[in-house]
Amino acid sequence: MAETSEGKKMGLWMSTSLVVGNMVGAGIFLMPAALAAYGGISILGWIASAFGALVLAKIFSKLSTLISDKSGGPYAYTHIAFGDFMGFMMAWGYWISIWVSNAAIAIAFVSALTVLFPILGENSLLAVGTGLSAIWFLTWINSKGARSSGAMQLVTTILKIAPITVVIVGGFFFFDIANFTPFNPSEESNFGAFVITASMTLYAYLGIESATVSSGTIRNPEVTIPRATMLGTAITTLLYVLSTVVIMGMIPLGQLEISPAPFADAMGIMTGEWGRQVVAAGAAISAFGALNGWILLVGQVPLAAAKDRLFPPVFGKTNKNETPFLGVLIGSILTSLVMLMNFTEGLVDQFKFLILLTTVCMLVPYLFTTGAFMVIMMKRKVPKTPWWPIVTLAGIGFIYSLWSIYGTGEKSVFWGFLLLMSGVPLYVWLKWRNREK
């Protein structure tokens, strides 16, 4: 369970690409269409969710400078602030949310490829094989060490950003401000539309914490992680907001609302059919890169918890490349099983619900991290300046996280609570097992 040696660790750009790559999945390529019904006011929703995300990014950045010697991100901070039980609960829920969400990302990858290879939409066996191949190829890449995974993440992040950037820059030459009239074409009030769009967009920022989770694999973490977290969140925010503005300015809202591929349509206006193919490839690469980054994290959270004897010891074992290979292997097996559910008749609805459910399990650690921030700052008596900036930062982060959880819906919150509680027997068993140690 040794720490990754310096030569095998990730630097600033790999760490930043981990943050950007994990936040920017395939969903961004559909978001303008989802927001089209609300028109220009959805831009204000993006800005509101971006503000909350940047506040959380700042909290994670500050915590990473205070606790640079411990991996696990939200788990580590919660464990230090609130003890074993809450630390375990955060690790349990976060771990489950990653391997379930990875199945959705793998399916999004296959879906994006169907534009380039229509046979994938007709042959479910071939589609399943493609999804499983992506999962296990990236599992192999991650087993080779942090730098291998980081290099893959850097390349795929550059490739996924490229077509988005082309649409943003080139789209302004095809921009029509009249598409933003009326500013709120929906039947909702301006405030109602603002709240709905802010709730819709906040999920796009899941992954802010990515660099903090794998701090043991990052070079000079007390400096690199804060920079990567803030830089990655800022880059992602610019991509989200600018791309939505440009595409809404290029495509009339009525047409955009029913578009299955808004980025491809925008590129088609600029370049013709070949541009649509480029965007389809970009969407596939985007999902592929996000899958790579989250497979890295599926081994890091239980590794950190296993070191504290709050997860089974098998998750703490590392290979010659200093990678928690058994943790990654177990995560990929579970991801493969969940992905297969989506190709089984009658289980599709349950799969979609699982994704929403695990979103709650990923948001709850954000909530506890804001509380942990205050507790750790008080314990370490860090500030010699007034407390009000710290309290304000934590307060905004707490409200944003709570609002995010509320936005998932009552059913998801209820079942998410039960999912978190399902880990209690494992916690009791671990405590019983460790009682004499």
UniProtKB/TrEMBL annotation:
Membrane topology annotation: Multi-pass membrane protein
Signal peptide (residue range): none
Molecular-function annotations in GO: transmembrane transporter activity
Superkingdom as given in the UniProt entry: Bacteria
Parts forming coiled coils: none
Transmembrane portions of the chain: 12-31, 37-60, 92-119, 125-142, 154-178, 190-208, 229-251, 278-303, 324-341, 353-375, 387-406, 412-430
InterPro entries with a match to the protein in the record: AA/rel_permease1, APC_superfamily
Compartments where located: Cell membrane
Protein purpose: Major component of the acid-resistance (AR) system allowing enteric pathogens to survive the acidic environment in the stomach. Exchanges extracellular arginine for its intracellular decarboxylation product agmatine (Agm) thereby expelling intracellular protons. Probably undergoes several conformational states in order to translocate the substrate across the membrane; keeps the substrate accessible to only 1 side of the membrane at a time by opening and closing 3 membrane-internal gates.
PANTHER family linked: AMINO ACID TRANSPORTER-RELATED (PTHR42770), ARGININE_AGMATINE ANTIPORTER (PTHR42770:SF18)
Protein name: Arginine/agmatine antiporter
The species this protein was found in: Zeaxanthinibacter enoshimensis
Upper taxonomic lineage: Bacteria, Pseudomonadati, Bacteroidota, Flavobacteriia, Flavobacteriales
